[in-house]
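Problem: given the chain below (257 residues), write out its structure.
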Amino acid sequence: MSVTPLREFEPSPNWERLRAALMLDGQPDRVPLVELIVDQSVKAAFLGRPIATPADEVDFWYQAGYDYVSLCPGYNVIAAGWEPKDGWRHSQVASAYGSGVQDVGWGNEGAGLITTWDDFERYPWPTVDDTDWSFFQYCMDPANLPPGMKVIARAGDIFTHTWQLMGFNTFSFALVENPDLLAAIFRKLGEFIYSIFVREVELDTRGVIMALWYSDDIAYTEGLLCSPAVFREHLFPWMRRIGDLARSIGAAYLYHT
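Solution.
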């Protein structure tokens, strides 16, 4: 029996293919590939080298067959030097790529980093100006993207960061016992994440962004993580503002949960 060898893959990016699928605007020539995030170890294994530069990042999304580069500027809501009051939870798991094991961190369940108003006032909250924009700025120049590719600009996790900063048990009790502190954390993070999206749009002076993508896990297989009323009050208004921002530049608006 003879076997026909697989043809070598030739990237053919076309951001209009993806937009047509997202906006139900005509029939794309094929089903587009879409991922919110690809792990750094997977990217490195695919390319055969680490992702060390913005050009490496672009090359991965191109070589892997995507019509866009998925970009989120560099920021960390968890402040350096701060630890949850109940400590971190870690597991060592075998890595599917490369060699050895990798360290996996888990969300805080008990008492987190911010459980009191004093913690809230002392916490070094991230700002848009402290964020690393180097990869993002590189990709805002169309000359640095292969023909046919654009950028999907990301940020997210207003809800997730809120409960992780508090610890999920502390967050749950605060819904009833300390709603003002919980609301203040939601507001602080909402303002920050929204400012990230605003800066992304401001940096796009040449029409490179094709979509804004907000991500936030609010449910599991059996239901929501808390009452819909919590999301309606503290999360959805921020998501609506991000959607309005996307529409203001004619971009698609995506949500991952």
